[in-house]
Design the sequence.
């Protein structure tokens, strides 16, 4: 009997608790939802990057068509430049990632150079350079040779040389040029070059000009330049002997500018004419063909 009374009492207490909870839930005043505020964090802008810039070959031939490829990130504008003599030449606005074919000039020597510039609105540009070595189609006619490729194959030509009191005249027939090399190179040009305008039937020498004993008046093309160029005449003086003929070899370096000229001398040495007519020297080669 007491057990039954206990069960009934427990059931009554539990029912009373549940009813109280329901009444509270229905009569409680709702509270406003709690508000949490977080600051908005914008992603910072990123600088442009060049991930790769390559050519499809490690070495190319003059005249060959190559493929340039590149990949960038965060770039909105990309420009590809061909460099000529270290300065910007042709350029192309290209996609941020892509490739392009380029045909190398048959006259190009030593290397081809390119630069890739990537930009966006928030950062300065970034750049990458690419130098592609070129094969050399020619060899020098002497050694030790310059450390660059010659611009052209060796020119073999008739030549004449004449020694003067203060320098030398050199005629290269296939170029129709007369090179004048002066001994006084300290304060002025060391050499100059003139077009050979003398033709058969022209005056060989001026009979009114009489050289001192033991000296000579230059003739033909040498004489024409010597007579019509007072500075040449004053700087060279009189010829020490008659002109001497033979065969020469001529080559030039292949820099963008400031090139050197090499001419085989009749004594089997090499005349070296420095850039910008600044000076000259005579080289003693270890090998001549």
Sequence:
């Amino acid at each position: 009997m007491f057990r039954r009374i206990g069960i009934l009492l427990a059931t009554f207490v539990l029912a009373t608790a549940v009813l109280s909870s329901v009444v509270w839930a229905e009569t409680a005043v709702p509270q406003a939802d709690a508000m949490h505020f977080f600051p908005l964090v914008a992603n910072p802008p990123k600088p442009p990057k060049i991930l790769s810039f390559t050519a499809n070959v490690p070495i190319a031939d003059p005249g060959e068509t190559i493929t340039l490829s590149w990949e960038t990130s965060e770039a909105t504008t990309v420009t590809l430049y061909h460099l000529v003599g270290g300065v910007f030449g042709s350029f192309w606005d290209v996609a941020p990632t892509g490739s392009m074919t380029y045909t190398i000039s048959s006259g190009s020597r030593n290397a081809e150079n390119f630069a890739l510039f990537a930009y966006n609105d928030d950062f300065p540009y970034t750049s990458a350079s690419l130098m592609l070595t070129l094969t050399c189609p020619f060899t020098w006619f002497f050694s030790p040779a310059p450390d660059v490729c010659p611009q052209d194959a060796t020119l073999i030509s008739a030549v004449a040389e004449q020694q003067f009191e203060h320098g030398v005249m050199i005629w290269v027939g296939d170029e129709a040029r007369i090179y004048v090399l002066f001994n006084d190179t300290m304060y002025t040009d060391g050499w100059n070059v003139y077009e050979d305008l003398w033709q058969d039937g022209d005056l060989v020498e001026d009979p009114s000009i009489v050289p001192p004993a033991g000296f000579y008046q230059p003739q033909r093309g040498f004489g024409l330049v010597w007579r019509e160029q007072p500075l040449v005449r004053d700087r060279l003086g009189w010829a020490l002997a008659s002109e001497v003929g033979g065969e020469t070899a001529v080559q030039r370096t292949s820099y963008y500018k400031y090139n050197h000229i090499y001419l085989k001398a009749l004594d089997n040495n090499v005349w070296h004419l420095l850039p910008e007519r600044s000076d000259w020297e005579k080289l003693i080669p270890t090998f001549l063909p």
In short: Residues 155-283 form one domain. The helical segments are 2-27, 220-228, 230-236. The chain has three helices and 16 strands.
